[in-house]
Amino acid sequence: MLDAINDFLSGKVLIVLIVGLGAYFTIRSRFVQFRHFGHMFGVFKESIRGQSGQLSSFQALMLSLAGRVGAGNIAGVGIAVTLGGPGAVFWMWVTALVGMSSSFFECTLAQVYKRSDGDGLYRGGPAYYIQHGLKLRWMALTFAVLLLVTYGFAFNGLQAFTVTHSLQNAFDIPVLYSGIALAVLLAIVFFGGIQRIAAVSDLLVPVKTLAYIAVTLYVIVTQIELVPGMLTTIVKSAFGLEPAFAGLLGSAIVMGVKRGVFANEAGLGSAPNVAAVAAVRHPASQGVVQAFSVFLDTFVICTCTALLILLSGFYTPGFEGDGITLTQNSLAAVVGDWGRIFVSVALSLFVFTCITYNYYLGENALQFIVGRSRSALIAFRVLVLGLILWGSMQNLGTVFAFADITMTCLAFVNLVALAMLIKTGLRVMRDYDEQRRAGIERPVFDASKFADLDIDHDAWRDAHKINSTAPAHGSLPAQG
Hints:
- The chain is an all-alpha fold.
- The protein has a domain at 2-154 and 193-327 and 397-437.
- The protein is built from 19 helices and 2 strands.
- It has a two-stranded antiparallel ribbon with strand order 1-2.
- α1 (2-28) packs parallel to α18 and α15 packs antiparallel against α16.
- The radius of gyration is 21 Å and the shape is globular.
C-alpha cells in the first residue's frame, strides 16, 4: 500500500509540481537562473569571505551541498539509469534547470524572513516564511513536523544502514562496530551545534566532491572518444528515439525527474533551512548561490556518475541490481577492484555529511515547533543517535517508503507556499537586479524599503557591513 501511494505521489503529483511550478517560476522571473548564470560564479567566490561570529554564505552552501551531494548522486543515478535507461539523465538535467529557479526563490525567501536565534546566528526556512509571510501558523507547523519526521528521523536511519552495510561489503567490518563508530563521531558533531556542523561540512564537502569528480573524470577522459556518442544516446533516449531504449520512454521521464529531485532537492523545502543561516548582504545573493549548488549537484556530479556508468561497458539494458552495485562495478570495470573500495569510501563520506545535514534540518524544525528548549534539544539528539545506531543494523525499507511519502507532502506544502509568495520573491529579486544595473557590484538589502513585510529588521541592520574589509562596528560577537 505504501508503494502504491508513493508511486502515485512521487511518480505523478511530484513531477507535475516540481516541473510545472519550476517552469512557472522560471517564466515569472524572466529566466533568473540563466540571466544570473555567469554571476553565480562571482557570487560563489565572494561567498567564501565570512564575518566573525556568523556563518558565511560559503559555509551555508557547503552545508546545503552536504545534503544535496549524497547517496542520491551515486545510488540514485544508478537507479535512474537502471530503470529509465540513459534518457533518464536528460530528464534529470531538465528538472535541475527549472529547479534552479525554485531553489533561487525558496532560499531568497528563507533569507528575507530569517530570525535571529539569540546566539548571534539565524534560523529560517519554509516554516518561517509560511508563518511570517503567509500568516498561516498551522501550515508552518505542518511543514515543520513533516521536516522533523522525514529528515530528522527516517532518513538518518536509512543513511546509517547504507553506509554500515557498504563498509561491511567492502572491508568486512561488522555493522555493529561501524554503527557505534558512526554514532560516536556524529555525537561529537551534533553536540557542537551549528558552528561545528558547518565546520565539518566546510572541510569534508569539498574533499568528497573533488575526489569523486576527479576519479569519475579520469574514467571519462580515458573513454573520451565515446563521450559525444553517449551524450547523443542520452538525448535520443530521452525522446524514445534510441531503439535499444525505446520502451523506456515513460520510465526515463519518471525516473529522471524523481531521482533528479531527490538528488538536488530543489523545491523540496530542505535547503532553505540551511540557506537562512548565512550572514549575507542581500537575500537574493544567497538565492543565486543556492541555485548554483543545484547546477553543481546535477550537471556536474550526477552527470559524472551517469557517464561513469554508461561508458564503463558494464551497464547493459535490463541490468538487475541496486544503484550502488552498478556504480561500484562500473568503476571497477575501468580502474580495477580498488574502484569498489573507492565508491564505498566516497559513499561513507557522502552519507556522514548527509546525516549532519539531516540532523540540522530536524533541529531547525524542532526549534520552530517547541522554541528554545534545551531539554527537548538534548532529547532529540539522543533519539537521533539511537535511531542511527539501530538503523545501522536494521533494513528500514518500510520506514524509508513512509519517508518518501512525507517528503512528497513536504514538497507540496513548500511549493504551494512559494507560489503564494512569488510576488514577494519577485519584488526582492527586482531590488537586487536594479542595484546591479545601477553598477552596485554587491547589492545591499534595505529592510526599510520592505516595511510592509514581517521581517526581523535586526537581522538586516548591519547588512552593508557583511564581508566588508573594514571592521564591522556593532557586529555580533564571535561565538566561543
